[in-house]
Known about the structure:
3-stranded mixed sheet, 3 strands, globular, odorant binding, cell membrane, membrane
Amino acid sequence: MDAEVNVTYLTFGGYVELQKYRYLYFMIMFTVYILIIYCNSVIVFLITIHKNLHEPMYIFIAALLINTVLYSTAIYPKLLIDFLSEKQIITIAFCLFQGFSYYTLATSEFLLLAVMAYDRYVSICKPLQYPTIMRETAVKGFLILAWLVPACVTAVSVVLYANVKFCNFTMKGIFCNNSGFKLQCVISEAISIYGVVMLLNIALFPMLFILFTYTRILIISYRSCKKVRKKAAQTCLPHLLVLINFSCFIIYDIVVVRVESDLPKLARLIMTLQMIAYHPLLNPIIYGLKMKEISKHLKRLLLQIKSH
């Protein structure tokens, strides 16, 4: 049986004293998962029911928060099961599926942030052309591409991994991510090259585009009146905060996970748990508190709940 498990399954070796703290791990992460679903869903609900929020900027925010819930769902259910299981194992096929879901949704966030940056650029720098450029069809097209392109790009990576021979069956992490790169008997050049291509196309290029658009926004708003500067600060600051936070997460995933690192096991676990808990919770908090219109409706909803 053990020989069969070694061949068919991968083992997650990133846990620290799981036997001792399994129920504590479970309760903390279960609470975080419920909070992620609840906080993100509340903001999406407010955007859905209020007609004054049916604008491209808020539609993109709703899409980003839905993406966050899906991203968390790709990780948390399996994670919670592992906390209560005797063996933290996963089939290679399901590991490939989890990796596909995880990286598709993670890279979709970058593209959604790029679309949001473009939306703000048009709104602030070309206000008269905004209704023409950001039509309903354009918004739908951006959303479809933001999910479809990462899915297609990540699918190629999954196909490459499906043909790889593994000589090591214990992953350093607690879910299927780049740590699987080190399990190969022989490092595949195709996977290495394609990984760089993926990084450039769906991370670095969108990042450069976002930085370019926000730089243009800052230059134009600085030269404009106080009203334009205020609008730029109110609508762009939340996006920049989310971008900075998400970029730190991407850097951790690439540098610490894929590149060999002497980071202690406990530190690696803490960083991973923060990565999958902190970012999904931060998004709705930033948009709920920093976006004026959403914050107004959120306060009204809380007062209604309190009165009942």
